Recover the amino acids of this structure.
């Protein structure tokens, strides 16, 4: 018999209620302390205002505070059933971060994401349980330098839970039954990230709570740190979660022992246990970590104040609602033996799986196209134009490259064109949010396209025997062999019409680079990217400083850097849009549905990294060919003369701008520029 129930999706509380408020220390070292009065927030803590029209990013925290994570399960697992967690998209969830304006203002988060799924409970026989819960947990592990070393902290926990309500509990029938759940994920939530010196990951945990096998063992377990996590060993970085959960259990144990001493409740089993209303009732209210009265620090994020636990939305089982508030006699029933003879399941059922959180476009929430255009003027190369385009831009995406030198100097020799993606990341510990970000390693450069060679190693004046991609009419020398079909189509050779090259390049996959971090995301790991264009060339008979010499000129390097936002490889049409109805034939039976749900991800539809370079490149070149044909037709209709005059005017403006920049740098004493640096 199938049973269907639904977890609530609306948080039951949004006001802080934590044991202490984290405050930065007066000496500015960032270690901080705890506010003396736990019932009142610090004076600097602003009043919560739902959905403000705009908020300044400078007033918002950039890193989530550390929290304690609860453990799923006890030391004893039940053999009466098993659990399966079903979530769409192969456990990959896309969120839309808050939109940032050029003025530094941003819209308040309004597009929170609801993680929808189902928990399948398969029972061997009919049993009743105390509670059913599903939650999302996140842990970060950061290397904060030789002095501090590695730091592991819980940074997010949110879930839903259904309680049995009374002695009737929740009955689970023999066979399979499903419970749907909805968990709200904030728009500012940190995304999945991993690097050599830092990582942030997510898991989904599920628990069906039975009774402890030994009588009276439920109550003393309040003061016993539980270190059996029962997490799936196949989860990547599972040891990070085990370490944080074990530490959380230890902290809670010490806290509960302290509370027990305050109210005269001995944690030692046996006689002498206080049964006063303030003792038993007070402690039975703390049976679960992360009560519904705890605010989510990531959602409201007004100050780096830690929450003692995650936010769980709880409700009583609809079949057995409580008729009145619990009394001392009701709570004392928890101390009475419960056994399988009365229908209770002994032990717990637990399950866990990895969850990926990635971000879409803050503006549209859809796929992100690329149309980057750059142009400038460099002595020797003249005006240059660069364009990179893609219909869907993301990690592992294919981009079309168009680089043009319409009027290079007739004494110029071009040896190499290189396109590099540079990635850097910074770490901010949740324990010290007011300290400057820490950069554990230099920027990493990934060459995504290169044609030609810069000459022999250490050679300052490449000779005429060195193969060049292009040489001017006043330079006699070797022309490199054509690499047409391998590196793209280029107009190599001596020409007065300039030099251009069109090619297809691909960004590295997600095993090498990570998505750029959105400005509105609250995360301890921030990633940024730059696109670097480099051209190696020389001017015959000239040094870098313009001094005239006899023979080949000195090797020069033109470098242009442009910041670029690289979306996640999961931001593709297949992940963001529903497929057509006739895309797949309907399964013939329910077993067919189960096979689809439990099947591994289809790499070609899960993310951009799946399809091959050949598949993506062929489609991109065909689209570019059609676009070029249309542009040529439009130019013919408008007339070539006007277009030529516009190009001449643009070249003149670029030359004037470049000369002005050179004069400013010379006046300020700065060295280096777009061209002339080695």
């Amino acid at each position: 018999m199938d049973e269907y129930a639904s977890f609530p999706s609306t948080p039951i509380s949004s006001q802080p209620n934590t044991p202490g408020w984290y405050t930065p220390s007066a000496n500015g070292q960032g270690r901080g302390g705890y506010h003396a009065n736990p019932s009142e927030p610090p004076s600097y803590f602003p009043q919560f205002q739902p959905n403000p029209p705009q908020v300044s990013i400078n007033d918002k925290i950039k890193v989530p505070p550390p929290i304690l994570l609860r453990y799923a399960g006890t030391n004893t697992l039940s053999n009466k059933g098993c659990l399966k967690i079903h979530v769409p998209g192969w456990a990959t969830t896309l969120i839309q971060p808050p939109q940032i304006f050029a003025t530094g203002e941003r819209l308040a988060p309004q597009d929170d994401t609801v993680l929808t799924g189902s928990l399948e409970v398969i029972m061997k026989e009919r049993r009743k349980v105390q509670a059913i819960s599903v939650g999302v947990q996140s842990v970060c592990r950061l290397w904060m330098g030789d002095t501090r070393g590695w730091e592991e902290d819980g940074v997010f926990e949110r879930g839903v839970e259904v309680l049995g309500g009374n002695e009737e509990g929740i009955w689970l029938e023999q066979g399979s039954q499903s419970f749907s759940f909805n968990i709200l994920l904030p728009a500012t939530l940190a995304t999945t990230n991993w690097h050599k010196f830092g990582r942030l990951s997510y898991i989904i945990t599920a628990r069906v709570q039975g009774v402890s096998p030994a009588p009276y063992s439920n109550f003393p377990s309040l003061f016993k740190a539980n270190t059996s996590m029962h997490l799936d060993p196949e989860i990547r970085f599972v040891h990070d979660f085990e370490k944080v959960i074990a530490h959380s259990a230890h902290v809670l144990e010490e806290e509960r022992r302290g509370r027990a001493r305050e109210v005269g409740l001995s944690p030692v089993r046996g006689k002498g246990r206080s049964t006063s209303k303030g003792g038993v009732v007070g402690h039975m209210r703390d049976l679960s970590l992360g009560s519904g009265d705890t605010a989510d620090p990531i959602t409201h994020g007004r100050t780096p104040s830690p929450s003692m636990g995650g936010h769980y939305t709880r409700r009583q089982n609809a079949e057995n609602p409580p008729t009145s508030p619990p009394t001392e006699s009701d709570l004392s029933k928890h101390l009475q033996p419960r056994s399988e003879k009365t229908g209770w399941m002994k032990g717990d059922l637990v399950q866990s799986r990895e969850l990926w959180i990635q971000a879409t476009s803050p503006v549209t929430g859809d796929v992100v196209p690329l149309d980057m255009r750059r142009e400038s003027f460099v002595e020797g190369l003249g005006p240059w134009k660069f364009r990179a385009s893609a219909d869907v831009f993301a990690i592992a995406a294919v981009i079309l490259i168009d680089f043009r030198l319409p009027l290079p100097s007739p004494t110029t020799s071009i040896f190499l064109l290189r396109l590099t993606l540079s990635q850097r990341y910074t770490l901010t510990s949740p324990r010290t949010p007011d300290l400057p970000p820490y950069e554990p390693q230099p920027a990493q450069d990934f060459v995504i396209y290169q044609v030609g060679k810069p000459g022999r190693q250490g050679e300052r004046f490449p000779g005429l025997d060195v193969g060049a991609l292009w040489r001017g009419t006043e330079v006699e020398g070797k022309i490199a062999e054509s690499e047409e079909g391998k590196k793209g189509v280029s107009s190599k050779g001596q020409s007065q019409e300039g030099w251009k090259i069109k090619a297809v390049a691909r960004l590295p996959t997600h095993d090498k680079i990570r998505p750029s971090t959105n400005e509105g995301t609250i995360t301890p790991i921030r990633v940024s990217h730059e696109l670097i264009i480099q051209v190696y060339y020389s001017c015959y008979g000239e040094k870098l400083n313009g001094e005239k010499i006899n023979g080949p000129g000195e090797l020069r390097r033109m470098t242009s850097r442009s910041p670029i936002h690289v979306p996640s490889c999961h931001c593709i049409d297949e992940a963001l849009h529903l497929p057509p109805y006739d895309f797949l034939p309907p399964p013939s039976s329910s077993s067919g549905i189960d096979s689809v749900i439990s099947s591994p991800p289809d790499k070609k539809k899960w993310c951009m990294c799946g399809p091959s370079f050949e598949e993506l490149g062929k489609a991109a070149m065909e689209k570019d060919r059609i676009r070029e044909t249309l542009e040529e037709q439009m130019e013919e209709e408008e007339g070539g003369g006007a277009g030529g005059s516009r190009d001449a005017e643009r070249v003149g403006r670029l030359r004037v701008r470049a000369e002005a920049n050179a004069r400013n740098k010379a006046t300020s004493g700065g060295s280096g520029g777009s061209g002339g640096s080695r």
